[in-house]
C-alpha cells in the first residue's frame, strides 16, 4: 500500500440523504435495474492517463500537479500502478483503461518502449489478480511524441507508419494478455493542418489500410473483444478523418470494415463536432456500430475539449436512454475520460471527482431506465410516424415518382402540418428527473 490516498475510505452507497462526501447517493452497484445489477449496466472504468499521467498543464501554463510517481523509471511506473489500483479499489470501479505511454517510461527506441511496456503489463497482471479489477480497453498513444506531429497512419513518412503499426501490435498484445474487452484507436493526429502540403486521398488510404491490418491481427490472435474507433473533430488538427460517427461510418464502408469495427463515443467530442451526445449515440445505434462511451463534459463557454467530470443529470439521462435503446453495453462500458481542474491538487479531489461523476451517471441511468420501461416517449414517437404503418404508407417507399404523382392527383392529397409536440415531450422527460 502507498500513502497517497491515506485516510480516504472506500466509497460505499449510502443513499440520497447521506451527507458523507465519500459516499454514493445514487450509484448502488448491486441495485437491480431492468433485470441486472447497475454495476453490470454501467460498467464503470477509470482512465489511467488523466488520473495519473496528466501533469496539470494547459496551453498557457505548465505542470501544477506534483505526484511522487512522476519520473522516467520503471520504479516510478510501478508506484503509479500501485496508486492507480488503490484508487480503483476505493471507488469500486470494475475496469480501467490505458494508453501505452501512460503506463511505461518512454524509451530511447521502439525496442526499449516494448520492454518497458511488457514489464508493466506483467505488473498489471499481478495487480489485477490481487484486486479483481479488469481492463475495459487498451490503446496506443500515437499523438504525443514529436515523431507523430504529422500523424501516425496518415504520416507522409513511411517509417512513422511502420513505427506506428509496430506500436499498435505491441499494445494489442498487451490488451489481449491482460484480458482486455476492447481495443481502441483514437487518431489524435490523423488529419491535416493545411491542404497545401496534404495528399488527402493517400492519407485516407493509409489510414484505411492500417485499420484493415488491425482487424486482420485481431482475427489472427483470436481476440474476441471489439475494435473501436473514437470519433474526434478538429482537435488538435484543423481537420481529422474521424470527425464524428457519420464520418467514421463512411470511412468504414469505404474500406469494407463496417461489420468489423464499432465506435467509442465521447461526450466532449460530440459537442465539439456540433452534435449532442445522444445524437451520436442514436446514430451509432441506427448504423449498428455502437460499442462504448467515454464520459465527460465540456465547458460550454469554451471551444476546447476540457474533459471535465460529468455533472449534468438530464444530459446523462438522454445519453443512457440511447445506450439502453441500443441494447446496453456488450463489451463496452462507461470510461471516465475526464481530468481534474489544474487547481485541484489534492488526492481527495481525484476521488471526489469520480464519486460525483459516477453518481451523476447513475442518476441519469435510472431516469433513462424509468423512461424506457414507462414507454410514453416511445409511444409518442410511434404515434408521430403512425401513418407509415398504414397500407398507403408501407407501400410508398417501394413505389416510384410517377405512381406517387398519380395517387396524389387522384386522391386529392393536400396534407396539413401536425405538431411535433416538442415542449410536451421535454416536460415528459423532466418528470423522470
UniProtKB/TrEMBL annotation:
Record: residues binding Mg(2+) 2: 266, 269, 305, 307
GO MF entry, a single one: xylose isomerase activity
UniProt keyword list: Carbohydrate metabolism, Cytoplasm, Isomerase, Magnesium, Metal-binding, Xylose metabolism
GO biological process: D-xylose metabolic process
Cofactor list: Mg(2+)
Broad enzyme group: isomerase
Name of protein: Xylose isomerase
Organism encoding this protein: Litoreibacter albidus
Name of the coding gene: xylA
Amino acid at each position: 500500500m502507498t500513502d497517497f490516498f491515506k485516510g480516504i475510505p472506500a466509497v460505499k452507497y449510502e443513499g440520497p440523504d447521506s451527507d458523507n462526501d465519500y459516499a454514493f447517493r445514487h450509484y448502488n452497484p448491486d441495485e437491480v435495474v431492468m433485470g441486472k445489477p447497475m454495476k453490470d449496466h454501467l460498467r464503470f472504468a477509470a482512465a489511467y492517463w488523466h488520473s495519473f499521467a496528466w501533469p496539470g498543464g494547459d496551453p498557457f501554463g505548465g505542470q501544477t500537479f506534483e505526484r511522487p510517481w512522476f519520473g522516467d523509471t520503471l520504479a516510478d511506473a510501478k508506484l503509479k500502478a500501485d496508486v492507480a489500483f488503490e484508487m480503483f479499489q476505493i471507488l469500486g470501479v470494475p475496469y480501467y483503461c490505458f494508453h501505452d505511454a501512460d503506463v511505461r517510461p518512454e524509451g530511447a527506441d521502439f525496442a526499449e518502449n516494448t520492454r518497458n511496456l511488457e514489464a508493466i503489463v506483467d505488473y498489471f497482471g499481478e495487480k489485477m489478480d490481487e484486486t479483481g479489477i479488469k481492463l475495459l480497453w487498451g490503446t496506443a498513444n500515437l499523438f504525443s511524441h514529436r515523431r507523430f506531429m504529422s500523424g501516425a497512419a496518415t504520416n507522409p513518412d513511411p517509417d512513422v507508419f511502420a513505427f506506428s503499426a509496430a506500436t499498435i501490435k505491441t499494445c494489442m498484445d498487451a490488451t489481449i494478455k491482460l484480458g482486455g474487452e476492447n481495443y481502441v484507436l483514437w487518431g489524435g493526429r490523423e488529419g491535416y493542418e493545411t491542404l497545401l502540403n496534404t495528399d488527402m486521398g493517400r492519407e485516407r488510404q493509409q489510414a484505411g489500410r492500417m485499420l484493415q491490418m488491425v482487424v486482420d491481427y485481431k482475427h489472427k490472435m483470436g481476440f474476441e473483444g471489439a475494435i473501436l474507433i473514437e470519433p474526434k473533430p478538429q482537435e488538435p488538427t484543423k481537420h481529422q478523418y474521424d470527425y464524428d460517427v457519420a464520418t467514421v461510418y463512411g470511412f468504414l464502408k469505404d474500406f469494407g470494415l463496417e461489420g468489423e469495427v464499432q465506435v467509442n463515443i465521447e461526450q466532449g467530442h460530440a459537442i465539439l463536432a456540433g452534435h449532442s451526445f445522444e445524437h451520436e449515440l442514436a446514430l451509432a445505434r441506427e448504423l449498428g456500430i455502437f460499442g462504448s462511451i467515454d464520459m465527460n463534459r465540456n465547458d460550454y463557454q469554451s471551444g476546447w475539449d476540457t474533459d471535465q467530470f460529468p455533472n449534468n443529470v438530464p444530459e446523462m439521462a438522454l445519453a443512457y436512454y440511447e445506450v439502453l435503446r441500443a441494447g446496453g453495453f456488450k463489451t463496452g462500458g462507461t470510461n471516465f475520460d475526464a481530468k481534474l481542474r489544474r487547481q485541484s491538487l489534492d488526492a481527495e479531489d481525484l476521488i471526489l471527482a469520480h464519486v460525483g461523476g459516477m453518481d451523476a451517471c447513475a442518476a441519469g441511468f435510472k431516469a433513462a431506465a424509468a423512461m424506457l420501461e414507462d414507454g410514453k416517449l416511445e409511444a409518442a414517437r410511434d404515434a408521430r410516424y403512425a401513418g407509415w404503418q398504414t397500407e398507403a404508407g408501407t407501400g410508398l417507399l417501394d413505389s416510384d415518382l410517377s405512381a406517387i404523382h398519380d395517387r396524389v392527383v387522384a386522391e386529392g392529397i393536400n396534407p396539413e402540418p401536425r405538431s411535433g409536440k416538442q415542449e410536451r415531450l421535454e416536460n415528459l422527460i423532466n418528470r423522470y428527473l
